[in-house]
C-alpha cells in the first residue's frame, strides 16, 4: 500500500545499472605564472550575523568597457539591402515556377503520347484483328478476272 503513485502494483522493475566515472590521467599544463596586482589590496574583515569573521582582500569589481555608440545606418543603405534580398527571393521563386511549368508540360506530353499509343493499339486491333464477321464481299482472287482495268466476277 505504501508504493509510489507511478509504480504499477505487481510489476517488477529492471535492476538499475550504476556507471562509475573513471578519472583521467592529469594532463600537463603550462605553468601558472602569478600576476602581481598594481597595488597591494587592503585586507578586510567582515563579521557575519552568526559571529564568524571572514578575512580577505577587498577587490574592486571588474568594470566593463563602456558601450560604444554604433554608427547610424542610412535609410538608403537599408532599402538597398532589403531590395537586394527581395530581388533574390523573386528570382528564386521565378526559377521554381519555370521548373514547375516545365515538369508539368513534360507530364502532359507523356500522357498524350500514352493515350495515342493505347488508342492506336485499339484501332490496330480493330482493323487487323480476326473477327467472326466481316462486312463487304469476299472475293476469291484466283477466279477473278480483270478486263480493261475492271474487275469481273
- What can be said about the biggest beta sheet? 2 strands, antiparallel
Strand content: 5-15%
Q: What would you call the shape?
A: elongated
Unreliable residue stretches: none
Taken in chain order, the helices and strands follow as: EEHEE
| Number of discrete helical segments | 1
Tell me the quaternary state. Answer: single chain
Total number of strands: 4
Instruction: Quickly give the structural class.
Output: alpha+beta
How do the strands line up in the largest sheet? Answer: 1-2
Give the termini separation.
113 Å
Radius of gyration: 49 Å
Q: Kindly state the mean pLDDT as a whole number?
A: 78
SSE map:
Elements: E1 43-47, E2 53-57, H1 75-128, E3 145-147, E4 150-152
Antiparallel strand pairs: 1-2, 3-4
Question: Describe it for me?
Answer:
The protein has one helix spanning 75-128, and strands at 43-47, 53-57, 145-147, 150-152. With 153 residues, it is α+β, with helices and mostly antiparallel strands. It has a two-stranded antiparallel ribbon. Strands 3-4 form a two-stranded antiparallel sheet.
Tags for this model:
153 residues; alpha+beta; 1 helix
Condensed summary:
The chain is built from 1 helix and 4 strands, in the order E-E-H-E-E.
Amino acid at each position: 500500500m505504501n508504493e509510489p503513485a507511478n509504480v504499477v502494483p505487481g510489476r517488477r522493475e529492471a535492476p538499475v545499472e550504476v556507471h562509475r566515472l573513471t578519472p583521467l590521467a592529469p594532463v600537463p599544463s603550462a605553468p601558472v605564472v602569478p600576476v602581481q596586482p598594481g597595488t597591494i589590496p587592503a585586507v578586510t574583515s567582515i563579521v557575519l550575523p552568526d559571529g564568524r569573521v571572514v578575512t580577505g582582500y577587498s577587490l574592486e569589481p571588474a568594470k566593463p568597457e563602456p558601450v560604444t555608440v554604433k554608427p547610424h545606418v542610412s535609410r538608403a543603405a537599408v532599402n538597398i539591402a532589403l531590395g537586394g534580398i527581395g530581388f533574390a527571393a523573386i528570382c528564386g521563386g521565378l526559377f521554381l515556377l519555370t521548373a514547375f511549368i516545365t515538369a508539368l508540360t513534360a507530364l502532359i506530353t507523356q500522357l498524350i503520347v500514352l493515350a495515342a499509343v493505347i488508342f492506336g493499339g485499339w484501332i490496330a486491333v480493330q482493323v487487323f484483328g480476326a473477327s467472326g464477321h466481316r462486312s463487304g464481299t469476299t472475293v476469291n482472287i484466283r477466279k477473278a478476272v480483270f478486263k480493261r482495268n475492271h474487275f469481273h466476277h
